[in-house]
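Listing S7. Sequence submitted for prediction.
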Amino acid sequence: MNFLQEYFIGDCLRSESGVLKQANIRLVFNLTLASIGLLIIVSLVYMINGFHYQLLKSLIIMSLFTGTLFYMRWRKSIEVVAHLLILISLANILTNVFILFQSFNAFGAIIVVVDLIFAFHILGSRWGLFYAACHFIPILVFECLQYVGLTFTRFPPQQLAFSEVFISLVLLFLIVLYLIYYYHQVYDLAKESLYKNMEELRLAKEMAEEMNRLKTNFLSNMSHEIRTPINGILGISQVIETETTDSNILEYVHLQQQSGRRLLETITSILNLSRIESNTAQLKLSIVNVNDLILESVRPLEELAKRKRLDFSLDLSDGSFQCLSDESMLYQVMNNIIGNAIKFTDKGSITINTKPDPAFINSCCITVEDTGIGISEEFLHRIFNPFEQESSGRARQYEGSGLGLSIAKRYIELMGGDIRVTSAKGKGSSFQVVLPLYRSH
């Protein structure tokens, strides 16, 4: 048995790494071998009893089953073999029902059940349903024809010898028993594989959490180590700025301050993102007046808009919108969104408005619209991913780390809100920040 298995499916087993796939290959091989054994015994019975038609049919089926074994060895695949086994078995059943025995009995019903269990397991639910119909419809047609008295043959039906029925039923019982045992084995293998995967996932999760903690600690420590000398450099540059009147030195100082602030903002953004990802970002909730916070956010950015000669307008609702939010986080969100609107708009206008959100009850919507470069439809679904920018590499036109919108989205979600964006390339963008309103009870 081991020699036959190695000869016919040894290479096929070694080409499959999955335990369940290997079990399926063994199942197809063993069922084919068992069917050939059954046919050999039945053929001997047919020969002894002189049933020439049944003997010829059995020899044809036996040769087809043997051919499938060599096909498995040649192609190292079982899908086509599974189809062939079911089709051969179906042809055998229909030949018995319509021609030889002209009846559908319990013996044929057992073979049908084995076929369908095999089809559903090896080939899946769609093929299983297809073969169920292929078995059921012809037999239903046969029974209807029998009811009205129609037959397909002129010669009388063949009879099954007692020895044939007895031997066939014993062998079929053993095949069904093997199928049950096989499914039990597969269930145990699947359960063992599931537990193993769960354990691997648990270890991977613990490792990822530990790596995330180490990353957060590293970023926190490095942020402190980098920000301290940067603050010192910026402080010295401010002293130089106040004590010199040389225009060239002042220009260099301004460039130094600009670069230092940009580096400081990047480091702060990376640290904030790492805190969010490690779930160490702490919310400090308080009642925030949305309109007041927007006015405070806009004040330091208006000058930048004026330098670019942009129309900068506010349309704040007359109602008093109060939200239970983290004021510092919300300020940073608005600073990032409005700052981006100014950065990516070279001409035109920027409009900020607040109003009740029509989609959610007891919510306010802060909208920031610009007439800037816009966002392409292909990139729109990635706009909130960290470190993602539509223009990247050395050819990009706009500076930035690609963290502002990612941090803004996560901050808003932490505060129970939502952030949406609509945009078209070359036509500007519209960001909507939705926050639940605070209701005192």
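Caption to Listing S7: primary sequence and predicted structure tokens for the chain studied. The domain at 285-391+398-436 is CATH 3.30.565.10 (Heat Shock Protein 90). The mean pLDDT is 81.
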